[in-house]
C-alpha cells in the first residue's frame, strides 16, 4: 500500500474536526491538522481524535498548508501521496478512496474532488462561490486549455509532484496556484465528482464580504499572473 498523509488546515473548527478525522479511511498513514491561530478547542479535539496537531500563528490557508508540508519534509519516511482536505466537514472524508484511485492506478499525478451541482447539498456553496468558481475555471480553460471545472479543496497529489510545484501562496490563492502550476508543468490530472454538504459553522472566506472579495482578487491575480508569464 502507498504511504498517504492528509493535511487539514483548520481555524476554529472544534465541532467539525473530530467528525472529519473520524471519517478518514484507515489506509491513511497520518492525519495532520494545522491549527491556523484557532481560539477554540480545535487543537484539543483534533489531538483527541488521533491527529498530529501543528500550530501556525500566521493567518492564511496557504500558511497552514505550507506548515503541514514543512512537517512532512522533516520526517524520515516520505509519503507517496498527499491529500488536502478542509476541516469544516463540508466534504465527505470517506471519499478519499476514490480521490486517490486514479493515482493508485498510475493514470494521473493530481486529482481534484469536483463539487458538481448534482452532488451538492442545497446552500453548500454561496452564489459568489459558484460564480467565482465558474469565472476562474472558464478563464483557465480559455488561457491554458484547462479541463478543470472546480477549485475544490479536496485534492490529492503525488508527493514528488507537489514538491516540484514550489507552492508559495500564503492565503486564499493556494488552490488555484496549485492548479495553474500543474497546468504549466504539464502534470497529468483529472477530476472526480464528490459529494458536498453544508459546512459546520461559518465560513471564514465565503461567509464574509471581505473574505469573498479578497479571495476573488487573489484567485484572479494568480490566473492573470500565469496567463502573461512566459
TrEMBL record:
Superkingdom of this entry's organism?
Bacteria
* Source organism of this protein record: Bizionia hallyeonensis
Protein known as:
Glycosyltransferase family 2 protein
By its UniProt entry, which PANTHER family does this protein fall under?
RFBJ PROTEIN, UNDECAPRENYL-PHOSPHATE 4-DEOXY-4-FORMAMIDO-L-ARABINOSE TRANSFERASE-RELATED
Q: Where is the Glycosyltransferase 2-like domain?
A: 6-155
- Entries under Pfam families matching the protein: Glycos_transf_2 (PF00535)
Amino acid at each position: 500500500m502507498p504511504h498517504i498523509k492528509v493535511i487539514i488546515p483548520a481555524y476554529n473548527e472544534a465541532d467539525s474536526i473530530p467528525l472529519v478525522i473520524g471519517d478518514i479511511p484507515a489506509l491513511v498513514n497520518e492525519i495532520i491538522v494545522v491549527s491556523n491561530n484557532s481560539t477554540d478547542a480545535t487543537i484539543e479535539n483534533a489531538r483527541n481524535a488521533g491527529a498530529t496537531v501543528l500550530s501556525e500563528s500566521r493567518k492564511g490557508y496557504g500558511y497552514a498548508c505550507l506548515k503541514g508540508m514543512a512537517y512532512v519534509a522533516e520526517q524520515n519516511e516520505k509519503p507517496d501521496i498527499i491529500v488536502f482536505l478542509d476541516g469544516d466537514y463540508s466534504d465527505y472524508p470517506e471519499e478519499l478512496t476514490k480521490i486517490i484511485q486514479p493515482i493508485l492506478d498510475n493514470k494521473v499525478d493530481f486529482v481534484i474532488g469536483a463539487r458538481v451541482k448534482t452532488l451538492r447539498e442545497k446552500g453548500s456553496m454561496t452564489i459568489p462561490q459558484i460564480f467565482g468558481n465558474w469565472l476562474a475555471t472558464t478563464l483557465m480553460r480559455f488561457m491554458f486549455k484547462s479541463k478543470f471545472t472546480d477549485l475544490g479543496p479536496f485534492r490529492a497529489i503525488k508527493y514528488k509532484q507537489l514538491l516540484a510545484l514550489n507552492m508559495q501562496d500564503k492565503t486564499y490563492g493556494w488552490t488555484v496556484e496549485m492548479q495553474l502550476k500543474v497546468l504549466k508543468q504539464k502534470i497529468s490530472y483529472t477530476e472526480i465528482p464528490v459529494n458536498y454538504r453544508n459546512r459546520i459553522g461559518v465560513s471564514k472566506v465565503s461567509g464574509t464580504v471581505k473574505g469573498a472579495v479578497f479571495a476573488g482578487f487573489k484567485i484572479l491575480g494568480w490566473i492573470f499572473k500565469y496567463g502573461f508569464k512566459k
